[in-house]
Structures are given as C-alpha cells and as structure tokens.
From TrEMBL:
This is NlpC/P60 family protein. One of its GO terms (biological process) is proteolysis. Residues 130-259 form the NlpC/P60 domain. Gene3D superfamilies: endopeptidase domain like (from Nostoc punctiforme), SH3 Domains. The lineage of its organism: Bacteria, Pseudomonadati, Bacteroidota, Sphingobacteriia, Sphingobacteriales. Pfam families: NLPC_P60 (PF00877), SH3_16 (PF18348). Keywords: Hydrolase, Protease, Thiol protease. The keyword Cell membrane does not apply. Belongs to the peptidase C40 family. GO terms for molecular function: cysteine-type peptidase activity.
Amino acid sequence: MDSYHVCRVAVAPIRKEPSDRSEIVSQLLFGDRIEVLEKTEKWCLIKTLHDNYEGWMDYKQLQKISDLQFRDEKAYTYLTPLQLDNTLIANNGTKYYLSPGSILPYFENGFCALGDEKFEVTSEAFTPSKDNFKLNAEQTAKFFENTPYLWGGRTLFGIDCSGFVQTVYRLNGIQLKRDASQQAEQGEIVDFLASAQLGDLAFFDNEDGKITHVGLMLSNDKIIHSAGKVRIDPIDDQGIYNVELGKYTHKLRIIKRFF
C-alpha cells in the first residue's frame, strides 16, 4: 500500500501499538513525510522517510500528498530556526506553534504549503548546512538545555537522549537515525576519549551490553545529554558523572564522529 502523507500538526505522537494508551516511541514534527503501510479506521502503521522509523499514529494528523510531492526533495529543505517563536498562520487566521527543526514544505516568499493549503511563516526559515557543524553544534545543543526528558520526545517541551542529538544534527545539516543503538552503527570510531572533539557522540550501554544512551561531547571531558533534563555533566573513561547525585550514571561504551 503506497500511500504518502505529511504531518499536518506541530507535533504528533508515534505509538508502539494502535491505541491512545500505547507508549510513545517517537514523534513527527510538522512537515515530516511518512509512508502509510497499513490502515484501520482511526489508526495507521507508518514509516518515516527521514529515519525509517515505524509505529502507529492517528490518521487525522496526516495530510495526503502525491508520489511526486513525496519525492520532491528540494521542496523540504527549509526548516524552522533555533528560536521559541516559530509561528505559522493558516488561511483561516489560526496559528500553529512549531518546534525548531520542523520542516516548512514548499517554502517560498514567506509562505509554505501542505497540499492546497498555504501557511504564512513568521520566522526566518533557513536551510541547514553541515559546513559549519563544529562552529554551530554547541550553540544548538545548549539552546535545548533544561528541556525535560520525555521518552520518544523530539521538541523543546520534552526530548529523549537520541531525539536530542538527532535534532541538534538535523539543525546542522546531518541526518541521524532515531534510536541510540541505531545511531551507534553510524559514523567513524574515535579511539580514545582524549581525542574526542566538540560534536562527537558518546554512547553508553547497560549491564547487558545494549546501547541505551547517547550524548553530545562539548569537549573531551564535558557532555550535554538528556537525562531527567538536557544537562551538561563531566565525563571520563568510566562514563558520565552526575555531581548532584555524587555517582556515575552512564557507562561509556564508544565514541563516534559524523562530520
């Protein structure tokens, strides 16, 4: 079933099962493209285009688009910038408040479009570039400081560890997969913590050796990550040390470079 859609609300939950009670595994942001794999009356099983993530969502939060619109990469290059006020104004005068890093489809002359509907874009839309990644990564990451941790979250009002680094990278022109374990399979290995640079990603495992956490290195001894909230902590060869708790909270497994 080839059925192409785009997210038509500011943020939409992707759930593990087709039920409002099911856990949220990720979120779609406005302008994210998806493929519908299965559909019931209310629910649809979807696969995201940007990170191939699958889950269930409420069909009403999607807008159908053509095959041509789905594959028109040039139409999805503009994003909302790193600021709080990313307001869209719909034809009827109502407003949408978007999180940074949301896609503005078919952006031109201060307007974007979903199907036949046009929206006025009040913020300065931009096309991310990875050319200045190291220059901008720290500022981008620190913008999300104190954002509360939310399993499956991808916005300023709640973000998880892999959603956080994925968003920082997206705003700087690099596409990462969704989960920490998937992201750990990307990039090049950094042999030693001492060689870590600003923007590298550090991955952490649990007792079973499964990668369950990721953070962004600010230097070779400081990391910013989402744990309780987006916070900056010291890191050494053992892992992340939480000064407030007076103990190590995450055991370091591997460091990867993506730029």
